[in-house]
# Entry
Amino acid sequence: MKDNRLHIKEAITKGETSLGIEFGSTRIKAVLIDQSYGTIASGSYEWENRLEDGFWTYNLVDIITGLQAAYSEMKQEVERNYGITIRTIGSIGISAMMHGYMAFDNTGELLVPFRTWRNATTGAAAKELTEKFQFNIPERWSIAHLYQAMLNDEKHLPRVEFITTLAGYIHWLLTGNKAIGIGDASGMFPIDESTQDYNETMIRQFDELIALKGYPWRLRDLLPKVYLAGEQAGELTEIGAKILDKSLNLQPGIPVCPPEGDAGTGMVATNSVRKRTGNISVGTSVFAMIVLERELSKVYPEIDIVTTPNGSQVAMVHANNCSSDLNAWLGLFREFSEAMGLKVETNKLFDVMLNKALEADPDSGGLLSYGYFSGENITGLEQGRPLFVRSPESRFNLANFMRTHLFAAFGALKIGMDILTKKENVAIDSILAHGGLFKTPVVGQKIVAAAMNTPVSVMATAGEGGAWGMAILASYMMNKGQEESLEDFLDKKVFEGVEGQEMYPDGFDVKGFEIFIERYKKGLVIEQAAVDNFDVMSEKREELTC
# Structure
């Protein structure tokens, strides 16, 4: 143990480390790893998106504050445990929620508030571009946001000099380089797998489509340069070092790898970049990534085609809503416990409540839930209303209640995955799951296995999350990534000897989920009615406060 401690201290001093920072939807996390890919220290910052002027957003102050806070907490942990102040790092990587829209002018000013993946405001643009390209353009993608702004005649457009994602913005801030990893780029604009760059034909089609609008730019001029995993995409500048480390101890010149999206880091963190492998990432949103052997036979609005960080084609099923409603209900149960004079630890609360789902009826007793805090593209809802429904005949108990909310968390995802497995016969050798839900053993894994009707594994490293996956990508670059494929690097170095706990689907659970999902589909008209008729009731609140 003492020798290992000395080894880590030496690695920190020499900069034989890699740092990954990921901007998730509820937490910004920084993870520092050594050359054995083990975590040395981590730091985090909790944050939440806000609905402002009809758009889900995070403001720039929170973005910079969170970046600095996460790094500072990681740095302090190193100082506390090893007595060393970090002055250099071997390599750095930035990742964040994919998609969205950040538009800047030639002075670097953000022209409109950051529009996140959660916005379902680009339906008209996404539909028109999908028809134009004959390639699915989801509402979340940057190009859909840009074109919708054109359809809306937004005033900022003539001033646009650069558009990027959140990860691309932070990378630009720290390095001065307008770069993006190919996986994150594939959520901005379609990628041509043969050239491993933006699809040039579609770029020309877009420029022709908007030619009459007379903007003083072409699309290619606005997009960041695409990089592959293993390539260097810049160095930490003096300004970048001062932004990242408020204590001003960190020195510039550190190599920085291509910024990536959370989908890419999830694939890396679960060793799911080979063809026929897949992973499911569970959080505020939920998405499944299946690395394809061949192209799909047709365009599906429910299926996004993106890439791995090294450019392989991936079918992505992304649902905007997953754990938010479940977390809200558990918050209510916490309030009840506290009102009864009971102080319950968060982990204990989650463990007890989630395990109740294992005692439920296979189909959740006829109950129904929609955890739609926002719109859901897979099921065609432009807005969301969290909703719980039961009939007088439903078997309403705590076990069924909890199972219903777990089933509902994967309802939209199930509809998309059925297209891949039942219509396209996509072969999947393995699915690995990661996210906070799997901190409670068995339950989440059992539910996902039932929903996907395929074996699901949770690896010991899955809890490390996307920031760790980003640190691995930074380490891959430092280890001369282009001399070894990313797949081989992960298999032979990072994950060698790492075991996963595999769970096969239970037949009763599978049948129960199939019954539930039919109920879920039929009940979508109820959710739509809630959207149409149940507003925020602001007028009523104003009356009450008068």
About this structure: The first strand starts at residue 18 and ends at 23. The radius of gyration is 23 Å.
